[in-house]
Design brief:
CATH class of the largest domain: Alpha Beta
CATH topology of the largest domain: D-amino Acid Aminotransferase, Chain A, domain 1
Order of helices and strands: EHEEHEHHHEHEEHEEEEEHEEHHEHEEH
Strand content: 25-35%
CATH superfamily of the largest domain: ATP-grasp fold, B domain
CATH architecture of the largest domain: 2-Layer Sandwich
Number of domains: 3
Length: 367
């Protein structure tokens, strides 16, 4: 079976690594000739919306998907007219505009932080009065890993933030004093079967995901309620594939932050930490194969490598550590790989994670 992926980043790479043992072949479209998925299939070097490249991809592939949400939704809509595209481009379109996304999920019954659209400095001043400060000013489109955002703590922050970001439509969101951030990953197949992995607790540094921790946790009543809302949304969109939902847990409720219509960094732990990874289940869903078991096989901690890679050999000497190198050129703020620790219990996991961080500090690695 031939799988087309628009985008050739690390998510496409990990999808291919999961699909090759299933007998799948992969074909990528990416403007970067050195994209990290290139060694795992054929690559067409072209812009994501290149009609000729998309047409050739549809012709040679049984099903097409995408590996990140900044792929133009219009390009995926054009591709869907030529062949099967999963998940639906509509989900991609919703996720690409923060205002549209929040309006959509508010209408679907999710709890969200207060928010207001901002198109001018006067809009920002009014929104700050309504939403309150502190708040976060964000671009409505194209922001990820903390990009396109400014935290506003005082009225004196409004004008400089608008000058920095105001060349495009914005949204102001209430700053949430949350206990933790959690993500919930789900997979849905074309027949409507939905499965969830256990929730993951996420920690960010400078807007970039630092760690995700998960395990065989029992779903709380609050999580069961949220799962029901997620299922309704996926059914309504006729969604096929993996989707990630990020929440702020305030202790009283889960406030939806955003949805990613794709496999997600906070689900990388599933490669070694679940019976079936998010990558394999995404491929199973979009190709019509039976969905795999999403249970955790132990307690897991995924740790991103950002900007530089530590000493691989020293890391691999730790028990239960699994190493992933994305084969990317190093630069500040860039995700170059990750490691996942897997243990039978939380105490062992915490001890090994502490040992890892002490080792990194001892070798001068930035932690």
């Amino acid at each position: 079976m031939n799988i087309g992926i628009v985008g050739g980043g690390q998510l496409a790479r990990m999808l291919a690594l999961a699909g090759l043992p299933l007998g799948m072949r992969f074909h990528f479209v990416d403007p970067n000739p050195a994209c990290c998925a290139a060694p795992l299939g054929s690559l067409t070097v072209a812009d994501y919306d290149d009609e000729q490249a998309l047409g050739a991809l549809a012709e040679r592939c049984d099903v097409c998907t995408f590996d990140f949400e900044n792929v133009p939704a219009q390009a995926m809509e054009k591709l869907s007219a030529l062949g099967t595209v999963r998940p639906t481009p509509r989900a991609l379109l919703i996720s690409q505009d923060r205002l549209e996304e929040k309006n959509f999920f508010s209408g679907a019954g999710f709890s969200l932080p207060a928010y207001q659209a901002v198109d001018s400095l006067e809009d920002l001043r009014r929104a700050a009065e309504q939403v309150g400060l502190p708040a976060v000013l964000k671009t409505r489109r194209l922001g990820y890993d903390g990009k396109g955002q400014r935290v506003l703590r005082d009225v004196s922050d409004l004008e400089p933030a608008f000058e920095a970001l105001g060349s495009m439509p914005l949204i102001l969101e209430a700053f949430v004093a949350f206990r933790r951030e959690v993500s919930l990953l789900a997979v849905r197949d074309a027949e409507g079967h939905v499965r969830f992995w256990p929730w993951a607790e996420n920690v960010h540094q400078q807007g970039i995901l630092f760690t995700s921790r998960s395990g065989p946790f029992t779903a709380s009543r609050r999580e069961v309620h949220v799962r029901g809302l997620v299922r309704q949304v996926l059914d309504g969109l006729e969604y096929v594939g993996v989707a990630a939902f990020e929440f702020f847990d305030t202790g009283e409720q889960w406030l939806l932050n955003e949805m990613a219509p794709r496999v997600h960094n906070s689900g990388h732990w599933t490669i070694e930490g679940a019976v079936t990874s998010q990558f394999e289940n995404h491929l199973r869903a979009i190709t019509g194969l039976p969905l795999g078991d999403t249970r955790a096989v132990g307690y897991s901690l995924m740790r991103n490598w950002v900007g530089e890679l530590p000493d691989r050999d020293a890391c691999l000497a730790l028990p239960g550590l699994h190493w992933h190198d994305y084969d990317k050129t190093a630069r500040p703020g860039r995700k170059l790989g990750h490691a996942t620790l897997v243990a039978e219990d939380l105490e062992t996991l915490a001890a090994t994670a502490f040992q890892l961080e002490q080792q990194l500090r001892g070798k001068g690695f930035q932690v």
